[in-house]
Every structure is written in C-alpha cells, then in structure tokens.
Amino acid sequence: MNLKLFILTFFLIISSAGFAQVKFEAKASKQKLGVNERLRVDFEMNQDGDNFKAPSFNGFTVVGGPNQVVSNQWINGKRTYSKTYSYFLEPTARGKFTIGQAEIIVDGDTYKTSPIQVEVTAAVDTPKDGDNSELIASDNLHLVAEISNPNPFLNQAITVVYKLYVSPRISVSNWREMDSPVYRDFWSQNIDIKQLKIETGEYQGEPYRYVVLRKTILYPQKTGELEIEPLTLSVSVDVPSDRRDIFGGRLYKTVDKTVAAGRRTINVKSLPEAGKPAGFTGAVGKFDFKVSPSRTELAATESLTVQVRVSGNGNLKLFELPKLEVPSSLERYEPERTENVRTDLNGTQGSLTDNYTVIPTRQGKFPIPGISFSYFDPTSGTYKTINSEEILLQVERAPAGSSMPSAATGGVYKQPVDFSGAQFKYIKLSTSLRPVGSTFFLGSWVFWSLMLLPFALVFGAIALGKKRKTLANDVQGNRIRKANRLARKYLSEAKRNLGDQKAFYESLERALHNYLKAKLHIQTSEMTKEHIQVLLSEKNVDQQTSLEFISLLKSCEFARYTPTSQGAMEQDYEKAARVLAALDKQL
C-alpha cells in the first residue's frame, strides 16, 4: 500500500513540474466597467507557442488588436521570455459576460487560459479607457512582414519585406530595433536601402502611410517547416491628447510602443527525385550555360583561355560550376573565378565564370569534350540540362627560336638572351667636378639665427603649453565654443544640402541643438520642446521668437516622414538664420 502511494506521489510531482514549465494566462484591465468604456485583455505566455487561437469575445466588439509584444532578456545568465497578445474590447450591452479560453500549442501540447468574468454596468459619467494613448497607438501602428512565397522549393529564392504602417491620425518621431530576426536554416542577404521613402497605401482597407524598413532575400537550406523570427521595434508615437495650446491646436503626447512583425512559417518543398540528372549540383532558378574558347588555332607553347560561364537568376552563390576536362596532350591550369552578381527583390542575378588557361604541348588536333550543366526550374517544376559543343583545337608547329616542352624536360625550356648593351647606359664614364668656394660663415646672420632658434622654440613651446592648459581647464568655455562651431558648421551644411530633404533637416536640427547647447548650457537629454520654451522665457526672449524656434524643431521632426518641397526647405533655412540672429541679440 505504501509503495503504491509512493509511486502515485512521484508521478504527480513529475507531471506537476512538467506542467509548471509553461505558463499561459489571461488578464483583464478591469473586472467591472461601464457600457461606454473599453476593456483590455492580455494573453501572456512564458514560452513561445504556435497557432494562437483567441476566444470569441461574446458581448464585446474588438476595436483594437491583436497586438503582439515579445520580451526576451538574459539576466545573470538566466533567460526570461514573455509573449503577449493584447485585445481592446468595447461592450455591446449591459450584463455579465465570460471571456472564454484562449489556446496555444507549445511543443505539440495544447494549453488554455482560464475564463474571465466581466460585468458591464450602465454608462459612467467619465469614461476611463485605462491607457487610452496606448489604445490609439495600437490601433494606428502596424509592423508587417510580407513574404513573396510561403511554399518554396529547396534553394528557391523568397523575399521578406518589412513595412511599418502608420495611420494619418498619428505620427512617428523615432524608432529603433529591439530584436532583429535570425534566419536559421536560410542563406540570407539584406538588400541595401539607401534612403527610407514614405509611400501611401492601404492596410485592411483603410488609407495608411508606410515605410519599407528592410528587404531580405532568403534561400532555404532545409526542407520542411522553417520559422522566420519576428522583427521587433520600439517606436515613439505622437498621439493626439485632450489638451490644446493657446492657439487652439491639439497637443500631442509621445507614447513608446513595441510592435513585432510576427513569427512566420515557411513550408519548404524538397526537389523531386524523379528525373534528377547525375551531374546536378544544386542549381535552382533559370540559367544559361556557355563554354567558349578564346581561339581554336594556335602554335605549340602558346596558350588559350576557355571560359565556362553560367548566367541567369537563381542561387548563383550556392552551387559549383562543372569542371572542364582536357586531353593529356593539353596542360590545364586551375580556373580563375569571376563573379558579376547583384541582389534585388527579384533574387540573385548575374553570372559566374571560370576562366581556364590551356597550353598544348605538341602539334596536332586535339578535341576538348563538351560538358553539361543541369539546374532545377521551380516555375515548371522540372530539371533542365544544357550541353556544350565539343571544341577542336588546331595546334601548329612551335615558332622559330623556341623549343617545345616535352615530358623529358618536364615542360621547362630555355630561350636565348639577347645582350644589346643598353643595360649599362646608366653608368657615367665622365664627370664634371668643380672646386667649392670658401665663405665666412662664423658670425654671419645665418649663424646667429641658427644659434637663437632653439631658445625661441623652447620659449614658444612653454607659452603654447600654458595656453593649452588654460583652455583645457575651461570645461564650460570649451563646451560653448565647440557647440558654437558645430552650430555654424551644421547651418552651413544645411545650406549645402538644400534639395536633399533628409540631409537638410538632419543638419538643420543639429545646428539648432548645438546652438542651444552654447547659449542655454543644456544637454541633449534636456532638449524637450516644453523645457526649451521655459528656458527661453526665463532668458527674456520674446514669445514670437520662442514660438518660431519651437516650430523649426517641429518642422525637422515632421520632415522625416512627410514629403516637402524645395521652396519649403528654403523658407525653413531663411527662418532658421533669422531666428538664430534674433536669439543672439536677445540672449
């Protein structure tokens, strides 16, 4: 009896420990709310799961979400992971409602959350949506990963384009990558984006602006289901608030929002075994193949070049070119590889060329047999083979005065050297020497100048050292002088960049910031618009000049995401020069 109890207790402990490893729970922002309020529900897990299934949310309308947030931290060598799906709900009627169970699959096992009871009462006088700014940011900001083909063949190119969609109701001031995707089991190459371009489009049927943040070409190296990890960004979002400025304009509140593109699964198909050629080396795409000699008639001991070239669109860097085989009467050297490859959204395109140097060792006719190149065409789903023609070399007798290499000499032969006598022309046989005249150097002005020069240099170095030490101790003065120099530099740089929107507004913003550092003695971390306006007011700067300075800073921020014209840039530059001149007089 005691043995059975021990075994039962042991299995209960093991099973409970196994279940405790995965934590999946649902949390509601409130248990009781008015019919005119909103509810936030988070489904949080401590391990990454697949096939997330949300409940039906009976009695509510989904007005935001699902928004996905991923946190992956290492603290003292210990990994902490969390993944949250958030929904924003609006009740449809009064009453008591049950938010059902959400489901997730982790390592083949299904986990469910516990139901949540929520009571919806009559409308309240002052609705509270919890974090309303978060709700606005979540509803109007989306990071999407667009995949060209979710079911490719092995080694077939697919593209992943990451787009950040922003609604016209909000604006984005800055973003940074929190977690970059790792493309395991893929050969990957990023496509360089020289300048971010704001475009207009639609997201779920509504007009949006979007920016393409990253483009990547992937070639799967394994078959089966392969996962692409999500790209995660931290975005500073400016959302409208309930406050207004003195002119009646709506004030904006900055919210830091974390968005993720979501984990994507790629189902990679294996290449068919039926019809696979014997010489297939893994080329997938559409290619041309050509073998061409530089010439077919030559004398013995002369050389020719045979070019083996594959061109087209496909995995050009992931397979081997076929080898050139020559008869024993020809000497073949190792090929020199030439690559002319570029990568864009259509895949990897260009050509690979092996240049073989071939030298005949005796007179006669020598055939170089043709070679074949096989590749798999994913469009038609079939293998294709291209065969080159045989090359026939006509080798004539060796030129006069030369000897042909043979097996007896090991391919080494001598050539007579012609001595023309010109190699000794640099030796001069006659000289033109003249006596050196005597001059009185001691006591001359040159003599005394050279004597006094070391003392002058010593005193000059001492004076220079004292001046440098004084300047080095003046920390505040150095900071002001440096900021003044940078302000003038970037303002002139902004003038040179007129016409280039991004470079112009970056230079203009740096000039404004460095001017503030010099005049107000503040650091970059203190440069908020509200703080700057207070400091300018304390320095007795008139309100019109202060507002114009703040509007310049706003123009620099908005210009990152909103296209502007050449005339607008010229007006902003003239305004900046005028405002800085006015501030100089008043400060």
Would you report the number of β strands?
A: 30
The helix fraction, in percent, is 10-25%
- Span of the ends, CA to CA: 92 Å
Number of separate domains: 4
Supply Rg. Answer: 38 Å
The helix/strand class is alpha+beta
Uncertain residue segments: 14-20, 404-419
Beta-sheet strand percentage? 35-45%
- Supply the number of helical segments: 8
Per the principal axes of the C-alpha atoms, what is the gross shape?
Answer: flat
Q: Largest beta sheet, briefly? A: 5 strands, antiparallel
Mean pLDDT: 80
Protein name: Protein BatD
Transmembrane segments: 440-464
InterPro entries: BatD
Signal peptide: 1-20
Structure keywords:
587 residues, alpha+beta, Immunoglobulin-like, 4 domains, five-stranded antiparallel sheet, 30 strands, 25% helix, flat, transmembrane, membrane, transmembrane helix, BatD
